[in-house]
Specification:
Keywords: Membrane, Transmembrane, Transmembrane helix
Helix content: over 70%
Structural class: mainly alpha
Mean pLDDT: 84
Protein name: Serine palmitoyltransferase small subunit A
Order of helices and strands: HHH
Radius of gyration: 24 Å
Organism: Phaedon cochleariae
């Protein structure tokens, strides 16, 4: 079972190298690309969690938003 999982991961890593054309570069260049890609994705994840989701959370907690949603959830009195 572990051999088949290893083969599966190896196959998709090989496809990744072919699609990104990283199989043509030297090992240090490939390592540098992976480091930069990891840093970019980490920065993107951090920005999303702290800036975007933080802004959404502040908006959801704002009194204007809660007043609008509470008024729309209440049945209208006639």
């Amino acid at each position: 079972m572990l051999k088949s999982v290893g083969d599966f991961i190896g196959y998709w890593y090989f496809r990744y190298l072919l699609v990104t054309e990283l199989y043509m570069v030297e090992k240090w260049e490939r390592a540098m690309f992976h480091i930069l890609l990891f840093l970019f994705l980490t920065i993107l994840y951090t920005f999303n969690n702290f800036v975007v989701l933080g802004s959404v959370e502040k908006f959801m907690d704002s009194t204007i938003f809660t007043a609008v949603t509470m008024n729309s959830a209440m049945p209208h009195q006639t």
